[in-house]
Design a protein that fits this description.
One of its GO terms (biological process) is L-arginine biosynthetic process via ornithine. Residues 374-441 form the Argininosuccinate lyase C-terminal domain. Its EC number is 4.3.2.1. One of its GO terms (molecular function) is argininosuccinate lyase activity. The protein has helices spanning 25-31, 34-37, 41-57, 63-82, 94-106, 108-112, 119-155, 175-200, 219-226, 235-240, 243-270, 297-321, 335-357, 363-371, 377-386, 391-408, 417-421, 431-435, 437-443, 452-465, and strands spanning 160-165, 168-174, 202-203, 230-231, 277-279, 359-361. The protein contains 20 helices and six strands. Helix 8 packs antiparallel against helix 11 (243-270), helix 8 (175-200) packs parallel to helix 20 and helix 11 packs antiparallel against helix 12. It is elongated. The strands form three sheets. Strands 1-2 form a two-stranded antiparallel ribbon. Strands 3-4 form a two-stranded parallel sheet. It has three domains: 21-112, Orthogonal Bundle (Fumarase C, Chain B, domain 1), CATH 1.10.275.10; 119-155 and 171-367, Fumarase/aspartase (Central domain) (Fumarase C, Chain A, domain 2); 377-435, Fumarase/aspartase (C-terminal domain) (Ribonucleotide Reductase Protein R1, domain 1). It has 466 residues and is mainly alpha-helical. The structure holds arginine (ARG). Arginine (ARG) binds next to helix 7.
């Protein structure tokens, strides 16, 4: 027969045995985290059930206790899901709220759950489970965005548009090629997140407060129960580091940087001066004073929200930098930046996937822009180089031709053959095929190049990888 616990302490606090005065309201409010960490309740219960199962397997608690714990937790899940569960900031955090309710429901078995465990390894486990789940959701959203990018890229694989350097027309590319650059950014983002997931997916439980525990626990069993790929192999490190959360914020900062760049392009492209794309009305808003306005709010906000994700990265780095081993309460501040990063990234991905599907290209405007920028000047230089002129000389020759075209207010292919030949006798009438946008595109026919065939091949490769 197991011994019974002493009569309940007068204080509400699980840990208050040695305290002689109650906490002030301000300190309570300052130290409580339940308002935000209750978001991890599923992970907390999942972790507790795996721990309890191990305790029973190792005969550290009885099978009857384990059955009670399972029953109590099932009821708590139902209460939280129905909204009946009463969260109390008197109980500080998600862990103590759930444990207290469990004890109310099932008595002493509830008090045995915490055997061989501390909130320090418990919270580290919860965050890792939470982040692992979040990364899985984000990877699905990212995949959906990538698919929608591919669909648009496929439709626009051969649509000529200017490629820019310094935001000046540089060379012809296709809209599909440009979109595939976005796709590549996302491919690396998703690789990075998959790697963060791997390092996040290790089990801290068993570290207890900091030094491990005197009970004959089986950490590998708990890891397998929770789908962790390995153990945190040092108890001090297990409870204290949050580098996985920082890595996630770093990967997210890069991802948001990419979305911010795309946003900037969308803002420019939907400006009538470019007029390259139209974005569906549902992603824009009007002005309360100027009736003609259609503003690109969604891309602008994505650009703006990038700043808060960068901020969360810096917040977490700063949170860790002064902490001696092992757990310090500072770590409770890890959650809000992490949660907000997850929410911002998820919402951005969701809204962009939808927005991409609602983009219409305006090929005529893209072609007009191409005609105004001497976009095939490099093709003329390459042509002269193929005819034997050293590239640097060819570059100079074409510069003179561009100056002439500019004076006349025309594009290069509009200069007559006679006029072109004044710059170089190497120029023949085969030059006009080279100077067209289609000729320029078709000539860049290698992996990573902008010919419509290569863009099509890139899309096919991307599809097979997704
Ligand atoms: N709410 C705490 C956190 O988020 C849980 C761990 C508290 N541990 C402690 N010894 N006070 O970090």
């Amino acid at each position: 027969m197991q011994p019974q616990s002493p009569p309940a302490a007068s204080s509400t606090y699980t840990w208050a045995g040695r305290f002689t005065e109650p906490m002030s309201e301000l300190v309570k409010r300052y130290t409580a985290s339940v308002e935000f960490d209750k978001r991890m309740w599923r992970q907390d219960i999942r972790g507790s059930l795996a721990h309890a199962k191990m305790l029973a397997k190792q005969s550290i608690v009885s099978t009857v206790d384990y059955a009670d714990i399972q029953r109590g937790m099932a009821q708590i899940v139902a209460e939280i899901e129905s909204g009946a569960f009463e969260w109390s900031s008197d109980l500080e955090d998600v862990h103590l709220n759930i444990e207290k309710r469990l004890t109310t429901l099932i008595g002493d078995a509830g008090k045995r759950l915490h055997t061989g465990r501390s909130r320090n390894d418990q919270v580290a486990t919860d965050i890792r489970l939470f982040l692992r789940d979040a990364i899985d959701d984000i990877l699905v959203l990212l995949g959906q965005f990538q698919l929608n990018v591919l669909d648009l890229a496929e439709r626009e694989a051969a649509t000529p548009m200017p490629g820019f350097t310094h935001l000046q027309v540089a060379q012809p590319i296709t809209f599909g090629h440009h979109l595939m650059a976005w796709f590549e950014m996302m491919r690396r983002d998703s690789e990075r997140l998959a790697e963060v997931r791997r390092r996040t997916n290790r089990l801290p439980l068993g570290a207890a407060a900091l030094a491990g525990t005197t009970y004959p626990i089986d950490r590998e069993f708990v890891a397998a129960e929770l789908g962790f790929e390995g153990l945190c192999e040092n108890s001090l490190d297990a409870v204290s580091d949050r580098d996985f959360a920082i890595e996630f914020c770093a990967a997210s900062a890069l991802l948001m940087m990419h979305f911010s760049r795309m946003s900037e392009e969308l803002v420019l492209w939907m400006n009538p001066r470019f007029g390259f794309v139209r974005i569906a009305d549902r992603f824009c808003t009007g002005s309360s004073i100027m009736p003609q306005k259609k503003n690109p709010d969604v891309p602008e906000l994505a650009r703006g929200k990038t700043g808060r994700v960068y901020g969360h990265l810096i917040a977490l780095l700063t949170l860790m930098k002064g902490q001696p081993l092992a757990y310090n309460k500072d770590n409770q501040e890890d959650k809000e930046p992490l949660f907000d990063t997850v929410d911002t990234v998820s919402d951005t991905l969701r809204i962009f996937a939808d927005m991409i599907a609602g983009i219409t290209a305006c090929p005529d405007n893209m072609r007009d822009a191409l005609r105004q920028g001497f976009a095939t000047a490099t093709d003329l230089a390459d042509y002269l180089t193929r005819k034997g002129l050293p590239f640097r000389d060819a570059h100079e020759t074409v510069g003179l031709a561009v100056r002439r075209a500019e004076e006349l207010g025309v594009d290069l292919p509009q200069l007559s053959l006679v006029e072109l030949q004044t710059f170089s006798p190497l120029i023949g009438d085969d030059i006009f095929a080279v100077l067209t946008v289609e000729g320029s595109l078709a000539a860049r026919d290698h992996i990573g190049g902008s010919s419509p065939e290569q863009v099509g091949a890139a899309i096919a490769r991307a599809r097979s990888r997704l």
